[in-house]
């Protein structure tokens, strides 16, 4: 039986946005305020937790796949200690200019792969992101519930919920996630 998930973008949602740069090593990674509590709310409600992130720094040669894997392993270790680890991690490391890339947001490929791998019901799922490409990815995958983080006005994609930052995310998700029946 499939269950819904809450999909999370990484930079700007799970961790503090590096701005115009990239998080290239664990020392540069800082969890966003309130995100661990938000992940725990989803876990306790019975939802799968999935990270769907674009990490072009690998494609640009600024970091290796091993560097990215190390950051994610350390992130998972810290989250597991708080009962909030992800069930799946999906990263597109292609360059934005790569004409052969099929996984770069707003493509739904990462969400569809997660759904197949983890037996997820996309039609009952949620996505939390900080950019139009995140919200559009959810739409293209059939994910109906979206939370847009940030003060920038949306251009092409209107989310079902909007928060200026992650500090109120746990409260919003606790109030809005439909209870799952076992």
Defining key terms:
6 helices; 6 strands; globular; six-stranded parallel β-sheet; alpha/beta; Rossmann fold; 182 residues
Helix content range of the residues, please?
A: 25-40%
What fraction strand?
15-25%
| Bulk shape | globular
Name of the CATH architecture: 3-Layer(aba) Sandwich
Give the domain tally.
1
Distance between the termini: 10 Å
Helix and strand composition category: alpha/beta
CATH topology: Rossmann fold
Low-confidence stretches: none
Please state the oligomeric state of the protein chains shown: single chain
Specify the CATH homologous superfamily.
Answer: HAD superfamily/HAD-like
For the CA atoms, what is the radius of gyration? Answer: 15 Å
Q: What is the string of helix and strand elements? A: EHEHHEHEHEEH
Task: Walk me through what this model shows.
The chain has a single domain (5-176), classed as 3-Layer(aba) Sandwich (Rossmann fold). Strands 3-2-1-4-5-6 form a six-stranded parallel sheet. The N and C termini lie close together (10 Å). α1 packs parallel to α6 (169-176). It is of the alpha/beta class and 182 residues long. The chain contains six helices and six strands, in the order βαβααβαβαββα. The protein has helices spanning 35-44, 56-59, 65-81, 109-118, 132-141, 169-176; strands at residues 5-8, 48-54, 88-92, 126-129, 145-149, 161-163.
Q: What is the compact description of this entry?
A:
The chain is an alpha/beta fold. It has a single domain, classed as Rossmann fold (3-Layer(aba) Sandwich).
């Amino acid at each position: 039986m499939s269950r819904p998930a809450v999909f999370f973008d990484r930079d700007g949602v799970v961790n503090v946005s590096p701005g115009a740069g990239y998080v290239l090593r664990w020392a540069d990674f800082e969890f966003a305020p309130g995100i661990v509590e938000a992940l725990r709310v989803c876990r306790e409600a019975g939802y799968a937790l999935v990270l769907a992130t674009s990490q072009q720094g690998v494609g640009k040669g600024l970091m290796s796949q091993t560097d990215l894997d190390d950051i994610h392993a350390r992130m998972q270790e810290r989250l597991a200690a708080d009962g909030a680890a992800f069930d799946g991690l999906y990263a597109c490391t292609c360059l934005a200019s790569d004409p052969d890339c099929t996984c770069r947001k707003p493509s739904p490929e990462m969400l569809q792969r997660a759904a197949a791998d983890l037996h997820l019901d996309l039609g009952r799922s949620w996505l939390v992101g900080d950019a139009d490409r995140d919200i559009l990815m959810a739409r293209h995958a059939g994910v109906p519930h979206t939370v847009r983080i940030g003060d920038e006005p949306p251009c092409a994609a209107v989310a079902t919920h909007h928060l200026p930052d992650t500090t109120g995310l746990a409260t919003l998700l606790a109030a809005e996630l439909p209870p799952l029946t076992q």
